[in-house]
Amino acid sequence: MRKSALSDEILLSVQQPARYIGGEVNSVMKDPGKVDIRFAMCFPDVYEIGMSHLGIQILYDMFNQRENVWCERVYSPWPDLHRILKERQIPLFALESQDPVRCMDFLGITLQYEMCYTNVLQILDLSQIPLCAKDRSDADPIVIGGGPCVYNPEPLADFFDLFYIGEGETQYDALFDLYLKMRGAGYSRKEFLHEAAKIPGIYVPSLYEATYRKDGTIADFSPAADDIPVVIRREVVTDMTNIVYPEKPVVPFIKATQDRVVLEIQRGCIRGCRFCQAGMIYRPVREKNVGRLKELAIKMLAATGHDEISLSSLSSSDYTQIGELVTFLVDELKGSGVNISLPSLRIDAFSLDVMSKVQDVRKSSLTFAPEAGSQRLRDVINKGLTGEIILDGAQLAFEGGWNKVKFYFMLGLPTETEEDMRAIAALANETAARYYETVPKEKRNGKCQITVSTSFFVPKPFTPFQWARMYPPEDYIGRARIVNDAVKAQLNHKSIRYNWHEADVTVIEGVLARGDRRLGPVLRNVYEKGGIFDAWSEYFDYARWTEAFAECSVAPDFYTMRERPLDEHLPWDFIDTGVTKEFLQREWKRAMDGQVTPNCREKCAGCGVLAYGCGVCVGESAV
Amino acid sequence: MKIRIRFEKHGVMKFVGHLDMMRYFQKAMRRAGIDIRYSEGFSPHQIMSFAAPLGVGITSNGEYLDIEVNSSRSSEESMRALNDTMVEGIRVVSYVRLPEDAKTAMSIVAAADYELTCRQGQSAGPADDGGPGRMTDGGTDGRRSVKTAEETLWDGITAEELCDAITRYFDGAPEALVTKKTKKGERTLDLKPLVYGLSVEEKDGQPFLYVMLSTGSQDNIKPELVLEYLLAATGHTFDPATVCIHRRNVYAHAAAGAGFLSLDEMGENIV
């Protein structure tokens, strides 16, 4: 029978014990005596969130296809179990074998959002692995970071042995082979890391040194040895169709956030919204062959028994074969009890037609993400969506029977004025008005329900807005208040609901997003003060962070409140994502001039990723 | 066509709760290619119902779910298809066709029987001396912890004393009153008419308390309530953390006065 790292007594005393037992359908068991590498793959958040992440499922499948590797999963123990593991000194374990993480060869941690950084320290601490890479011995696992946050890994530089920059499918084989070769020959951890640093996409933070000017900005950042690369180039999958994809994803017992088959239809986005990091770091857009997707959909549904399939991409409407794929799925799955979910579809006649086939119109709502209320500001952010497109889309939807619309906006975007904020309320009002004009009284299903949500903009590395400044929390709340007042003053205010995001956490996210390695002690301090699950509003404590900044003599405003000069040495400048700094600077200037840049299919903007020679850059498509 | 499926639940699967087990079987039906019927309407769902929810932490040899299918392979083939897609700890042990007028298992459940064993070392408190490097010890491993016959059971009671307690405070007593906590508060209940079997038995040299009791929508009794009663009657303290519960089977009333019938005896194998 499977062993369990936790006693029945402990499992019966915590919430959702099934988070910790492993053994799910399609989870992979191997004989530890017959593998050469043990890999613990971690998503540093609660099981239900972590299990919903596609990237880990891809790497889990890929690693386990290697006979000599056993990849297992680890998630953050919820605070109730955290307390027990600390008190009783029970080391954190991997779900499959229930063996301690610290006995593995590698611990890979995916970094999907900045507010999980304290959970990274939690994972290391509970695993009884020294928090700082420099304190680890040859007996400790090699700790690897991956995911979108590694495009500025510097705040976490102290805690990781290496970072994998880019798409995971390409270089892990090389890393594993090097590890086996060097371990077999008796090399040390240090020697292995030095050689690993020469593998494309691998960044070993301990081998680089930063010096600073008096004003706090970086003077120089360079490798400490001659044979270590000065620039790390992002790894990119050039053939999306033939790359590994999990045909048998793990099916959780408890309801995960993403309790469905996730079919990645393409990677990257053609749109070039200037605030969007994903739109830059996953360039170029690369479609998967539609035939391959059909085959995958059927196989994955059969292997999981899921009752829903979701198409995943940054902008599904831009997938050239979306019509063919969706029609196939609708026909194929008719009467099988399997639903189709289509997030990130542009609202137009086609998508409404499809959606009316796959969801209950009366219950579902339509989502628009104009991000900015005024046309002027939408041009600044290069969001190619006009008020007319939104209103016409909404009208079509109202005619089709929908009466719920959700809008997503950001506040605090560069150049934003009060007028732009008020325009958010005006757009919501016009949408509501369109409902009452379009749908005759006798056909109305009550009032229309417009939900407006705003988050506060956080500038991210490798976007045209990476130089932008942020604002103090009070200022953000002031902006939300302006929108709130404006919503209340609208004629159709009874049909509009307004929600806004918290401001404190936004500022901390901003510090971590564009911070440097001097933030390491701050993160450690916050963790030692008890900070975990900072991505959860019930656990986030702003005071804990401000105290930690003060105790570590780090001024958070340095990272957030300055508009950075275009020639400043940025902490992430040593990474080459393929999108050139010149392009980002050009886009920043165009933003300030309110000039729109066409999308990748309309006209190449010369961002630089053509160098990878794949996807939309070379005219490849899904057919 | 109505089908009744019996399955076993063992090992760590006891930590997967009732609602998650339902979701687990819905997916298993699709993986195994069972031609299950769906309800009508915009969001069709599988026609499936479970007999008697099993609490988290309890293992079982007799769990039941009823489904309706459009067509079915033989019992043997269907069981094989299901078992090929089961996880470790869940095993389908019967698949029978019910008469078309059969009521659902849920509506006819009348009794269930259980084995209660004593879990050792659970009330010892936190393992204080467990320095780094200690993965498990006697105190953190639930599987090597059932006491032997010569040792004592719950709160120091011996098997013999427990036997006596049954004779004195249950078999020989006019009533056996307990307080049952409900959502609305507490109520006093006489266990005597609701407990159909109560004895101390032994398996592999290990004593356990056997209890068969009323189950279902009316008078649903938890087995630990009986143990709690016996311990209280003999001046012992009841600690739920020390009780390991295993459900043997679930039953319906047989024809008038003929006792109980295991739920899977109400259908026939498909050949």
Can you offer a commentary on this structure?
The complex is a heterodimer of chains A (623) and B (271). With 623 residues, chain A is an alpha/beta fold. Chain A is built from 20 helices and 19 strands. In chain A, the strands form six sheets. In chain A, strands 2-1-3-4-5-6 form a six-stranded mixed β-sheet. Helix content of chain B is 20%, strand content 31%. In chain B, a hairpin with an 8-residue loop joins strand 2 (48-50) and strand 3 (59-68). With 271 residues, chain B is α+β, with helices and mostly antiparallel strands. Chain B is built from five helices and twelve strands. Chain B has helices at residues 18-32, 75-84, 105-108, 159-171, 223-233; strands at 2-9, 48-50, 59-68, 90-97, 109-118, 177-182, 185-190, 195-203, 206-214, 243-253, 260-262, 268-269. The longest helix of chain B has 15 residues, at 18-32. In chain B, the strands form two sheets. In chain B, strands 1, 2, 3, 4, 5, 8, 9, 10, 11 and 12 form a ten-stranded mixed β-sheet that branches. The chains are: A alpha/beta (623), B alpha+beta (271). The A-B interface holds A 1-2, 4-13, 17-18, 21-25, 87-91, 99-100, 128, 251, 253-255, 301-307, 335-339, 360 and B 10-13, 15-17, 20, 23-24, 26-31, 38, 42-46, 56-57, 85, 87-89, 119, 122, 126-127, 130-136, 139-143, 241, 244.
Uncertain regions spanning at least 5 consecutive residues of chain A: none
Task: Tell me the helix content of chain B.
Answer: 10-25%
Major beta sheet of chain A, specifics? 6 strands, mixed
In whole angstroms, the N-to-C terminal distance of chain A is 48 Å
Q: Helix count of chain B, per DSSP?
A: 5
Give the low-pLDDT segments of chain B: 122-149
| Order of strands, widest sheet of chain A | 2-1-3-4-5-6
Radius of gyration of chain A using CA atoms only: 25 Å
From the alpha carbons, calculate the radius of gyration of chain B and give it in angstroms: 21 Å
What general outline of chain B do the C-alpha atoms trace?
elongated
- Beta-strand content estimate of chain B: 25-35%
The span between the termini of chain B is 14 Å
Shape of chain A: globular
Which structural category fits the helices and strands of chain B? alpha+beta
